[in-house]
Records
---
Amino acid sequence: MKLARNRARSEPLLEVLGARRWRRCCTSPACIAAGAMTLGDLVAIIGAIGIATPAARAVSGFNTVLNEALASLGRIFSLLDEPATIVDRPNVRPLRVERGRVEFDNVTFAYAGAPAPRTGELHGGGRRNRRAGRPSGAGKTTIFNLLPRLYDVTGGAVRVDGQDVRDVTLASLRGSISLVAQEAALFNDTIAANIALGRAGATRAEIEQAARAAAAHEFIAALPDGYDTLAGERGNKLSGGERQRVALARAFLRDAPILLLDEATSALDAASEARVQDALKRLSKGRTVLVIAHRLATVRDADRILALENGRIVEAGKHDELVARGGLYARLSRLQFADAAG
């Protein structure tokens, strides 16, 4: 605000001073009467002032711009210099994934030291689908963040095939996980390069194979430059469904044994969702899959559904079992499928 005030004061002041100086030097009656200035001289001076004024104004604002830049650099470097809070412990070993069994054992978690309720016990069997459903704020995404150690638990343990995720290397843990989020993370690079982020050194044939598996090849091939088309900042040159299919192709290429799907279809239209759902079924084969979904149609066929409320798992079972119990999941199911029928 101080910089903005100084700028607001200085620019009008420069305009006024420049105009007064020009009037004194160039348009005084004595100057013209004495024949010291011709009409051509007057026009030349007016043109010179018009050209010089923007440059003079830029010089006057240089100090303001410089201070703004220094303040911004200070904030950027303070962030870059921030030490990592999640690091490898001494003498950790690489993760060994055999069955892909994911276990949340009496886990508690709190942001910035605030108390958080216990999540209970969540077991994910090897190569099976686990899905969580509940309105926003119940802790679903937090559960996902604890598995790849984006945060560490404040109590209990998260295990993969019996190995505490804090006792294995971060590189091996995160290398065993693929994430497809609600907002696809795309960069202003070619579509091929965005897919190749799933696995370093992937060939063009492998990239195209992953795109075909994700039902993305057809729309990519129809683009002006095909796989060499730029996706734009945050993928803004693609539709929501196209961005999601590129993200799925990246997950196919990664071929990790554990797959996390965080509302991967919630922002799609019906046609795009159908294509993405088919791709997800293919991607889910032979691996452990955890899915966050508000649309219960997405979770109906899961091996096990977990309903969360206020940070705690309150129900677990298959779709038909949970509907028969008449609890939280049954209420959500009645609301959603009644809306769909209407």
---
Amino acid sequence: MTHLSRLLLAATALAAAAGLPQAARAATLDDIQTVVVIYAENRSFDNLYGTFPGADGLANASADSKVQKNRDGSPMAVLPPAWLGVTGKGVTPAITVAQSENMPNGPFAIDDAKGYALGIGTITADLWHRFYENQMQIAGGANTGFAAWSDSGGLSMGHYDGSGQKLWDVAHRYVLADHFFAAAFGGSFLNHIWLICACTPFYPNADKSPAAKQISAVEPDGVTLTPPKDGPGSALTTAPKFLNSGGLTPDFYAVNTMQPPYQPSAVKPAEGGDPAYADPAAPNVLPPQTQATIGDLLSAKGVSWAWYAGAWQATLDKEKVTPNPVFQYHHQPFNYFAAYAPGTEARREHLRDGGVNGEALLADIRAGKLPQVTFYKPQGNLNQHSGYASVMDGDAHIASVIAALEQSPQWPHMMVVLTYDENGGFWDHVAPPKADRWGPGTRVPALIVSPYAKKGFVDHTQYDTTAVIRFLTRRYALPELDGIKVRDEAAAKAGSGKFGDLTAALDLTR
């Protein structure tokens, strides 16, 4: 330790002992006593923040990454149609497949007259965001396969102006991380699991189980899905087709949406079975997982924590709520793990109801009763997921939660991380760093909000979703999860550099 460091530490200790306010002394990592993680849905960085001042946005995209290629590798003259239509089911005004034809090949603003002239309040169609398809879209880092390997064709290249969002104001006041990547390729299910354990779920003996038909057909490269005998066809004439794109890899890892083994689950209990469980004979129910999670490590260290799920109790109670919260069962990662099975003390303590519209969470925020580590998953219609949520509704809700946190008694010693589980099928121009077979996937937005955040700062540090685990591991001196070690070793071997732990976004002395 240098002489200057000793002086800073001594000054900090004296200031704390004297009861001086935080502004009068140097801050350290120990000053962060409450960590809140808000996990939103399905937006690439360019989709929401591509025009944010000072960020690595659309202006930095190379001409090569903008031009989407057909399935034979040739550049397309125009973008494919939006095969699912542009707007979500039942949304008006509807934009049809025919109306989406012949768009110029490249990124475009969904909310511009030259695009679809649809504002952030319109729910667009839900794009593919799946494990193998995402890798085919990334195309080795070129990002030229998004339109060809999407069931939504040209819609995958859409983005928004963004500046009218409430969260842009939050980003301007605090920190926007512009090199933050989804931990895993593909969708919400896998990235929620990675958020809490840096691991990929496993289905033992899947080939002899009800899930046998979920095993994907994959080419020898381990990345490309096997096409049918008649080939994938041109992206300009048909949506992509595969022999089998299922929930499992050929070696039985669960990479696309599987349902939790416990209620709430999209799969009902077995007839005559335990009503707290999903039917284990259903082909899309994942067996209980036993890997170590960040929750386990925090509990072992005596650190309080909870996962707040919006509309959790209303869903369990089958309440009819208007508007429909569109609860997403596969967005609740701890509900896949045996340690948090129904009837356990760990479940009662750590899996909490966030309330309809987040009201239960907001009550705990206002009362200053949040645990030391708080995860918040907004209900479906407030999480910004295409297909059933608009950008605007989620933006307003999440901004209101952050505003409440800023007024909380716990705010002076708080750090908030807002990020997105994955890109939702939307294009982004930055190549993900190469690491292990699971990811990282496409770049997503991340905001770091705290009295200790560097104000008005765009953080260019390389992160992925495991930055949350890395930060908690460092803050609370926890053991390192195996998946973090594997990712770091793989990234080093690939020459991808190191992943940050979010401390670069903070003004701390150590």
